[in-house]
Design a protein that fits this description.
With 450 residues, the protein is an alpha/beta fold. 37% of the residues lie in helices and 15% in strands. Helix 1 links the parallel strand 2 and strand 3. This is Extracellular solute-binding protein.
Length: 450
């Protein structure tokens, strides 16, 4: 795999600075809102010429991997030139909102939970007619759940993500505690309270638990990391287009109250190193921290499921995927690139570069990290047990995508505010009722995003 670009033009797009705070400022009425056929502005094209690609300007390893991938695509498709543009995340939305149809990219990266909003606004189009059936069939059920809106597939994914409970085996064994190793064996919420009480007796400050509080709860991290509390209690955040009776259900109130009760055992983790430094024995966190945890703990690092709040242990899933522009005039060439991105060689290269779980079944099964017998096989098992969306919750499935709705920005904003308030000691029922009212009011104001 080469890393130096040849003909492809890689640059950062100069856009007006714009602060996108946790996805809460998405404009919810755009060029295709109001019922226009989602693929009406798409043209097949010749399958040759120049296609524009927008990618999120991320970590250097990811950027270099993407650059090399686009270079290799051009080498394999001599009649196609890639105009590659890396765009800072805080400028990405502005670029889409201000672009004319001619300026919209042919292919773009989309953060998973915003998929439905981007589809609603016409920034992306269904792509099942432009990628191969082999590509579609090889996508994991978890990632297909995130990328499907209204029955249409709007994206394909190279990678996914997942949550787990990470443990320090030495500290756990010193307290006589063994980490569960499957979702079926997950501690119940009541059992987990007992685990924390036991660990607290062995801990210098009585705070043996971490939840990455330094990431903030009123952020996108809040809904990603802690929506599984509600799902594990058997309740979605949104049911039949309404938050009332879902995000503030009795089961949700009980589960969130239990979670808030664990604050007395929780290290504030202001430096982000509570687990690596050994201050806590258990840490609620995503797969992306594995390299740092492994380096710090070595063979003492163990991994297991989040607690079961009554309807089975759950985990969040979903991340950035690749979509086709909503007004592309060269869908044929865009589809060729998407197929290339999802090939085994490319997915392997990319996920090896960033350590994420592959989102294709073939590469997930053979991954050096997530394959059978490998260090993070447990996370693969969770992702393979996909619900995959919150309207299909059962006790047996584990991984769930965040709500698939064009109104997602208000859902994540209100959930995050509620979570932060409850953690700070506000009444759980009142706080969740207020969040439900705010979400439903926004949906009503926007004609339920029909």
């Amino acid at each position: 795999m080469t890393t130096a670009p040849t003909r492809a033009r890689f640059r950062r797009r100069p856009l007006t600075a714009f602060a996108l705070a946790a996805g809460t400022t998405v404009i919810l009425a755009g060029c295709a809102a109001g019922g226009e056929d989602a693929s009406a502005r798409v043209e097949e094209g010749t399958g040759t010429g120049t296609i524009t690609v927008w990618a999120l300007d991320g970590q250097s390893a990811e950027n270099e991997a993407i650059q090399g991938i686009m270079d290799d695509f051009e080498a394999a498709n001599a009649d196609i030139t890639v105009d590659m543009q890396f765009i800072p995340p805080d400028q990405f939305l502005t670029g889409l909102q201000t672009a004319s149809d001619e300026e919209l990219p042919d292919v773009l990266a989309v953060d998973g939970p915003l998929m439905a909003n981007y589809a609603y606004n016409g920034y992306i189009a269904p792509l099942q007619d432009w990628v191969s059936q082999e590509t579609i069939d090889n996508q994991t059920e978890a990632i297909k759940g995130q990328n499907t809106v209204g029955g249409d597939l709007y994206a394909v994914g190279m990678m996914n993500s997942g949550l787990a409970m990470w443990g320090n085996k030495a500290l756990l064994e010193a307290a006589g505690i063994t980490m569960p190793t499957s979702a079926d064996e997950a501690w119940t919420a009541e059992e987990f309270t007992g685990v924390l009480q036991t660990l607290a007796q062995q801990d210098a400050d009585g705070k043996p638990f971490g939840v990455a509080e330094n990431n903030g709860f009123a952020t996108e991290y809040g809904i990603y990391a802690f929506a599984p509390i509600l799902w594990s209690a058997g309740t979605p955040l949104i049911a039949d287009g309404e938050a009332a009776g879902a995000i503030d259900s009795d089961a949700a109130v009980e589960a969130m109250s239990t979670f808030a009760s664990w604050r007395e055992f929780t290290d504030p983790d202001t430096d982000g190193s509570a687990f690596q430094s050994g201050r806590v024995a258990l840490n609620w966190m995503g797969n992306w921290m594995y390299p740092a945890y492994r380096e710090a703990l070595g063979d003492d690092l163990v991994v297991g499921p989040l607690p079961d709040f009554g309807a089975g242990a759950k985990t969040g899933s979903g991340t950035i995927a690749w979509s086709m522009g909503g007004a592309t005039k060269n869908a044929k060439a865009a589809g060729l690139l998407l197929d290339f991105l999802m090939s085994d060689e490319i997915v392997t290269t990319y996920t090896n570069a960033n350590g994420a779980p592959p989102a294709t079944t073939t590469v997930l099964g053979t991954s050096e990290l997530y394959g059978e017998g490998k260090p993070l096989q447990f996370l693969s098992e969770q992702l393979n047990a996909a619900c995959p969306t919150e309207d299909k919750l059962t006790e047996d499935c584990v991984s769930v995508s965040r709500p698939i709705t064009a109104g997602y920005p208000v859902v994540t904003a209100e959930f995050g505010k509620a979570l932060a308030a409850i953690w700070a000691g506000e009444d759980t029922a009142e706080t969740l009722h207020a969040a439900a009212r705010a979400i439903d009011r926004d949906f009503s104001d926007n004609d339920d995003y029909r």
